Each structure stands twice: as structure tokens, then as C-alpha cells.
Amino acid sequence: MKFIQPKSENENTFTPIFGRMFRRSIQLNLRLHAAVLFTCSALLLPHTAMAGGDVEVDIYELTNTGVGGNIGTITLTENEHGVVFTPQLKKLSPGLHGFHVHQNASCQPKDDDGKVVPGGAAGGHLDTQTTQHHGLPWGDGHDGDLPALFVNDDGNANSPVLAPRLSLKALDKHALMIHQNGDNYADDPLPLGGGGSRFACGVIEVK
Ligand SMILES: [Cu+2]
Ligand SMILES: [Zn+2]
Fold it and tell me: Coil, strand, or helix at residue 95?
């Protein structure tokens, strides 16, 4: 019996020490995981914000001599449904504005029988199939016919629109045009949806 050592006090002190160390290592692990998670989300965030292949188009007010001030951007994103146009625009008049892809990569004015047309050098609506009629964005007319842009009471346009028949590739080296008035997606009673004068424009360059 002499050789049997009584439970030393050490055992009693060891356990809490190991316990503490174990707890500390768990805490360290949790902290490490948190750090890794944070780094991962920090890395993911900018990627989500600028998803691969998006195209940003700077939009400018049109004048008789060229382009005026920048009024924001429109971001083009292709997905399985077509191309989404996400505007971040200001200084527009509230309501709906005709919105189209025009043929030429220019926002310059054009002389039309002695009358200066702001944005006239952009030409007519993109019409690769030579349909020669203005119609619905999901219809059988110009491929450049997009859903009209909605501008809120503060003069901002932030609502995305979808063009189901387009791809980013088809949009390269053309112009985005925003008109003064709305769009009824027909040539009647007014031609080209009744959008009237060209108000703002941007040239699309797909890299
Ligand atoms: Cu137009
Ligand atoms: Zn059209």
C-alpha cells in the first residue's frame, strides 16, 4: 500500500490547465475561421460587384455641338435571358424615356438639311435583319428596340431592363440612346415609338 501513490494534487491542477489550453485552442480556431471567412467574403464582394464580362457605358447629355455633361452610366450584363441594362442615371425628366441601340458608334450631331440634330450621327435603330419597323423589345422589329427607361420624381433612373434578343457581342460598336419622350413600341401614331428628340447617348465598347 505504501507504493500506491495517492492522487497527487498535480492531477487536479493538470486537468484545468489542459482544459484551459483546449478551450484556448478552440477560441484560436474560431478566430482563425472567422478571419478566413472574412477574407473570403472580402475577396468575393468585389467579384460579385463587377461580375466578369460586364460592360459599363458612360452616358452624356447631347448638345448641338457634340456631347455635354456626363449623367451617369448604364451597365450591360449578359445572362441566359439576354442582356440586362442597369442604369445609374441622374438629371433626367421624370417618367418613361424611349431607349434604343442605334446603329453607329457615335453621339455626335448631324446636319439634316441645314438643321442640326443632336446625336444624329448615331444613325437609326440597330436593325441587323432589315425589318424596317419599330416594335416590342421581344418582338420582330429592330433589334435595337429596348424597354423604355423609368425615371423617378428625383430625375434618377435605376431600374434595370432586359433585352431578350441581344448579346454583348451584338452590341459592340453601337450607341445607346435615351430620348426626350416615351415609347409605344410601334411606328404609329408617331414613327419610332414617338420618342422624339435624342436627349442622352453613350457609345458601347465591348472589350
Ligand atoms: Cu432611339
Ligand atoms: Zn426601333
Answer: strand
Q: pLDDT digits over 117-157, tens only?
A: 999 999 999 999 999 999 999 999 999 999 999 999 999 99
- 197 alpha carbon to ligand 1 midpoint, in Å? 9
Ligand nearest to the CA of 191: 2
pLDDT in tens, 42-78: 343 433 344 568 999 999 999 999 999 999 999 999 9
pTM of the complete model beyond 0.85: no
Distances (CA, A) of 107 to 52, 55, 74: 27, 18, 15
| 8 Å CB contact between 85 and 74 | yes
Q: Say how many Å lie between the CA of residue 121 and the centre of ligand 1.
A: 12
d(CA 198, CA 192) in angstroms, rounded, equals 12
Convert the pLDDT of each residue in 178-187 to its tens digit.
Answer: 999 999 999 9
The whole-angstrom separation of Cα 127 and Cα 143 is 5
Ligand in nearest proximity to the CA of 195: 1
- Between the alpha carbon of residue 34 and those of residues 16, 29, 193, the distances in Å are 26, 8, 55
Residues 6 or more apart whose CB falls under 8 angstroms from that of 36 comprise: none
